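Appendix B, Record 12. Input sequence as logged:
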Amino acid sequence: MKQNKFLLAFAAVVSGVLVSHNASATLLLTDQFSGYATGDLGAAGTGGAGLTPWVGSSAQVTVTNGSHSLDGTALGLVSSAGDKVTIGATAALNVYNSFCAAKTFPQSAPTNLYYSFLYRFNVGTDVSPNGQTISQVTRQNGNSGIHWTLVAKNVGGANVQLGIAKPSGTSTNFAPNVIAAGQTVFVVIRQQIITGAANDIDDLWINPPPASFGTNEANVPTVSATTSDGTEDPSTTGPGRFYVASGANANLDELRIATSWAEATPPAGQCLNANITLDPTNVSQVAEIKANFLSGATGTSPVYQWQLSQNGGVTFSNIAGANQPSYSTPNLVFATDNGNKYRMVATVPCNGSSDTSAVATVTLTAPVVTPPGLIMFDQFADTLRDNEPITTNNSVWKTEVSPNLSAFPGPGMTGIPVSGGSSLWVGYFCSDTNPPVDPIMDPVHLAVGTTIRVTLPFDPQSYGSFTNNGSMRFGLYDYADGGTMVTNDDATAGGSTGNGINVRGYMLSLDFGPTFSVSSPLSLLARTSLGDNNLMGTTGDYLSMGSGPSGGGFTGTPAFQAGTTYTLVFSVSRTDVNSTTLTTAISGGGTNWTFSSTDTNFAYHRFDSFAMRPNSLETTADSFFFPTFTVQVLQNPVTAFNVSIALSTPNSVVLTWPSVATTSYQIQSTPTVGPTAWVTNATVVAAGTSTSYTNTPLSGTSRFFRVVAQ
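Logged structural output:
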């Protein structure tokens, strides 16, 4: 089987260990698309239980389990096994691989980066004669800052040519190779990062000679096309995202990214032994959340298998389906999973060699369950929005540009989106990032049967600079379990940053403007790409949980009117050990929009922060006023099924129902079922698992009863 093995650079993202780039040859990524679940390449679970480095779910870029590989042996490459990527004809550019950590390859360090892959155009007439993007590399933390673009153009009939281009360049330089529909080609791109005033150079090979495969840099063959026409991305972030573009019916396979020609061009017949290059590290965390592990190996098409020991490492057994470099456990239980040991075994099928990683141990602490009650009610009456400490009436908010988020003169807080770019406003309602030092300020930990509810009134005060609808995003997050809190007003809290690495949570992406521009304006998402520092800047870092309200049909209808106060209620209910339900409701101005979705993939239930991200001044309101910020933990309403009724005397009735201890129940009655208001007869608090109530004397000739859990 194939698998994705993303090594040193991506490990720096996931584990938090900084890896400095050096001149030695490094294989950054090799992906043969093995063990991927059928479906969107960037969907949760592909590549490792939600830790896939592929991000940006798209129905146009998919993997089908059992689809088999493109065959590169005729081109002189090692044989392939597993599956390939299928690319659709509808144009999109939102699926990418974060193949290294930010600042691994800055413009200040002269470096050669090689990108190689197999590609096949299935329908050449899909390709525009004017040229269209096939793939590109951008800066590591966003889709801006393009480093190079691979362009395809139709050159008559079903024939295609490929060319290389740089941002701000005046032309695309095409390779002379004419590619027929159905022909598999081997594409190699070299990005030469050159410091100083000279422009970077990008080189392109189509089907380079097999005799050159695996050779040293001095013997790299003559290029098919090259360009230095265009400016460089000045960001110190450096390249780090490889994008796959759709728009032509095609297939992609055998993606490799490396710092040497030899690593990017494995010759046919090569069979290298399995060798672990990255060991998983120990994990210490609170119980009832997932633990994440990462390992890596070199060798010829190594197969990964994670193993678990629950007897102190005496014996290990294979974990079903855990056959990717990354592994994310189910939510771990303190009583049974504390001390679990995990390791990864890599095997090379062509020679039967294998290597076993070091053992990583999970150390769990018992969670401090948050009881129902008020967590935060902040009116910003002190005229400050970032003063510590955090208390039950004082949240702490951070942003990039201080004047754009202010609680002066108070009460209330005003947010001003920046012009031409995005803003991030992140607020903390718990301060302890190392639980359980202070149980009062630990992250909210939902017990099964409880809900966290954030209530945020907001008023879009004017639309003077508004030009078109944009995405207004709201999110509920957990920084404590692996993330790093934002502590200053600076670029750390920029619209495309936010210290997002390892931060878990949910997001509402809201179509925002005076009139809705889409049929279903509320989109719910669960954060899946935990290795990205960009907290809310792209929905590609999230798994879609669907859109609403149910039925849709909102295109062109009135949305958010200036000067009107709306109230957002953002709730997460923990309904089972591995299940949560996310609900968002917006009311105000005579409206009431709501949408809910259930998450059984991640079941996030620990939270310490709430964040907002307006897309820009031109695509949301000129300013927003937030009068209050409220966070509560509530007992979930419990439906009292199987209520039994028995007459104890001719004039009294006994109601008995299964109950949840400490839950409050109202017993209500009405003479007729219909518009008549229900009357509360009594309120009782359950002492155990069964509760009863006696009504006497009965009033009227008939009476209907119901039990409502509070």
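Residues 1-23, 44-52, 433-440 have pLDDT under 50 and may be disordered.
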